[in-house]
Every structure is written in C-alpha cells, then in structure tokens.
Design a protein that fits this description.
By secondary structure, the protein is of the alpha/beta class. The protein has helices at residues 25-31, 46-56, 73-85, 97-110, 163-181, 188-210, 215-234, 239-251, 255-270, 275-285, 290-300, 316-325, 337-349; strands at residues 14-18, 37-42, 60-67, 90-95, 114-118, 129-134, 137-142, 150-154. It has a six-stranded parallel β-sheet, sandwiched between helices. The chain has a two-stranded antiparallel sheet with strand order 6-7. The structure holds nicotinamide-adenine-dinucleotide.
Length: 357
C-alpha cells in the first residue's frame, strides 16, 4: 500500500451506540448541562417526542413535533419563536434527517447545543451540513455550529422504521459512502469508513428486507449509517448529491426515495472516470459490474425505481438538468448538461441505468 499526502479534519462528537441506550438519555443531557430543553420531532413521531419529554421530566421547556422534510425556513421561524419564548438552553431531536435538520437550523441561529437521536439511516446527525429550503431552492451550507454535540443511537428505535423507508434510507446512506470514494478530499480513514459503511449496509438491508425486526441486521444498518454519515460529514460530495439537493428543493421529492432511485444512475455517469472506485464497489457486492450489482440490489429491496413515481413532473427534467449543472460540486467526470439530462430522463422513466455512460 502506498499512502499519499492527505488532510484529515476530525469532527468532534460524542457517540453512544447500542440497544436500550435511550435509558442513558437523562445522564447525557445532564452531561451537556441542559436544563430547559426543546424536544423536536416530525409529526409522525409525536409520541416518541412525548416519550422523550416524559423521560426528561422538568428539564423539558417545550416540545415541537412539527419538523418536515427539506427544512423549510418558515417552519424554522416558528420553532425559533417557541425556543426564544421558552428560553430553551438546548435541543433534543428524535427522528430522521427532518427532525435533525430543524434542530440544526435552530442551532445555526442560536448556537444551542444539540443531542440527536437518529431513527433513520440518513446520516445527518454526523455532519456539519444543513440544507434549507426557501422559495423552491435548497441551499446547503457547512458550519460547525450545526454539528450535534452528542449522538445517541438506540437500535431499538429503528425496529419500527417502516420497511420501505428502511430500504430507501439505507440506500441514501450508501450514496454518502459511494461519493466519498471519489471525493477530492478523501483520505485513508474516510476510505475505511466508506468501505465499512457500504459493507455493513450491503449485508444488512437484505436481512431486514427478509425480516423487518432482524436485530443484528438493524444493528449493522445503524452502524453502517453512522459510518456513511461520517463520510458525508468529512468530505465533499459530487454529482449525485448535487442532483438530489436540486430535485428535493425544486420538486419537494421525498429525500430517501430520490437517493435510492438516482444512485445507480449517477454512479453509472461517474464510475467510468474512476475505475478504481468502480472495482472497489464491485468487490463490496462481490460482483463484476457495480452498476448492475447496485441496480439489482435496489430492485431486490422493492424500492421505487422512477422519479415520476415520486411525483416529479416530466417537464421538470429540463429545469432539473439546468439547476444540476449550475454551480456544480467537484465531480470525477465533467458535468455536461445533455448527458445529465439524458440520465435524468432515464431515472424519471424508471429505465435501467446506462452502463457505458
Ligand atoms: P425523515 O426524517 O423525513 O423521516 C421520514 C419519515 O419517517 C417521517 O415521517 C418520520 O417521522 C418517519 N420515521 C423516521 N424514523 C422512524 C422510526 N424509527 N419509526 C417510524 N417512523 C419513523 O427522512 P430522512 O430521510 O431521515 O431525512 C430526510 C431529510 O434529512 C431531508 O430534509 C434531507 O435533506 C435531510 N438530510 C440532511 C443531511 C445533512 O447532512 N444535512 C443528511 C441526510 C439527510
């Protein structure tokens, strides 16, 4: 092995991982010296937010179960009014990237400490990244202010994650690791994390698909999500993430499903430019062709295969292509509008990814 020059910026975070770890929440909150907590969740996890509030008793100053996908600024404004009125001194967010996104948006504006309890595989908990949507455009920024101070992973909370969401969210995580492999900022540690994350999810998702409450599958998937999220938090992403941010902002498409549809297409676009990454992903699947492996993996897990089935209008393909080439992220292959448009058209229609793009 020949190690070339690299920079690694380690992100500070305390991680508690396991089963039944929610019991440790009161001591973790005390460790952060939080006395007036704002508990955040999405509406669908209202009951979990209230369970958290019960566990934390008098330390809770308010509950806001109103987080929604893509972190619209008007929702943040409402939560912020509550946070200020109740003089909160910290946030506990439970849920997927939507709840954690709202927590981050408040932290950006207030610098409040955050303890987050992820219940999907999206990985936002491990990143200093915040994507916010305003007037149909999703703007993403990096700031250490939004990186959560503590992450509490309790595998038991993921046992009820609906099967379809488990599969799409797992593919969302895999996208972070796949793009980390060809990131200009990658380094040997990130490579190890990307490999561990992809390997864990490739092994875990079919086990969960076969039995939704497979405990070891759920443990491995959440561990994989942490590894993949850590890659996203540490290195820049490419075309795949750019397109998903664009589609999320412009059409409000569901985040995890959109990643699951797009990943084989965007990798088909990129992998010919990075044959070592192509080999690496193929090896992780123990197959010859990484795109065939990935597309068949996704199809085998029953995840949606067409952007049109997620609610994207056909007329949106041109707008998406225009936005995707605007201010592109660094990418191993030149981002050409017509090729990107053709790729989006295939993904919209649910066609098989073009193998020799
Ligand atoms: P989500 O948070 O919107 O969750 C999807 C649905 O699943 C919600 O209705 C939620 O209540 C429900 N749910 C979540 N966990 C559950 C559980 N264990 N049991 C039952 N129901 C559960 O979806 P997501 O894909 O996790 O997050 C998407 C959002 O996160 C997007 O806005 C995306 O931009 C953002 N995101 C940000 C980053 C980052 O680093 N900034 C990374 C990934 C995703």
């Amino acid at each position: 092995m020949i190690v070339s020059n690299f920079i690694h910026d380690a992100l500070p975070a305390r991680v508690i991982f396991g089963r039944g770890t929610l019991r440790q929440l009161p001591e973790e909150v005390a460790r952060l010296k939080l006395e007036r907590i704002l508990v955040i969740s999405a509406a669908g996890q209202n009951s979990q937010a209230h369970e958290i509030a019960m566990r934390l008793e008098s330390r809770v100053a308010a509950v806001f179960p109103g987080a929604v996908m893509h972190t619209p600024t008007e929702v943040t404004d409402r939560a912020l009014v509550l946070a200020v009125a109740r003089r909160v001194d910290g946030i506990v967010a439970i849920g997927g990237g939507s709840a954690i996104g709202l927590s981050k948006a408040i932290a950006l504006r207030t610098d409040l400490p955050q303890l987050v309890i992820p219940t999907t595989y999206a990985g936002s908990e491990a990143t200093p990244i915040l994507g916010e949507t305003s007037q149909g455009e999703k703007i993403t920024q990096r700031s250490m202010k939004v990186l959560p101070e503590s992450i509490l992973y309790d595998v038991d909370l993921t046992m009820e994650l609906p099967l379809s969401m488990s599969m799409t969210s797992g593919l969302n995580a895999m996208a972070h690791a796949a793009e980390a492999f060809y990131s200009p900022d990658r380094n040997p540690l990130i490579d190890l994390m990307a490999e561990a994350g992809l390997g864990a999810l490739i092994s875990a998702l079919p086990r969960i698909w076969a039995r939704s409450d497979d405990v070891t599958g759920r443990c491995d998937a959440l561990y994989g999500a942490w590894m993949c999220g850590s890659c996203l938090g540490s290195v820049g992403m490419g075309l795949h993430h750019k397109i998903c941010h664009t589609l999320g902002g412009a059409f409000g498409l569901p985040h995890a499903e959109m990643h699951a549809v797009m990943l084989p297409h965007t990798l088909a676009y990129n992998l010919a430019a990075v044959p070592n990454v192509s080999d690496r992903i193929a090896r992780l699947f123990d197959q010859q062709n990484p795109i065939v492996a990935l597309e068949d993996f996704a199809r085998g897990l029953g995840v949606p295969r067409a952007l049109r089935d997620l609610g994207m209008p056909e007329e949106g393909i041109d707008l998406a292509a225009d936005l995707a080439v605007k201010k592109p992220y660094p990418n191993p292959r030149l981002i050409e509008r017509e090729a990107v448009r053709a790729m989006l058209a295939r993904a919209w229609a649910g066609e098989y990814p073009r193998l020799t793009e």
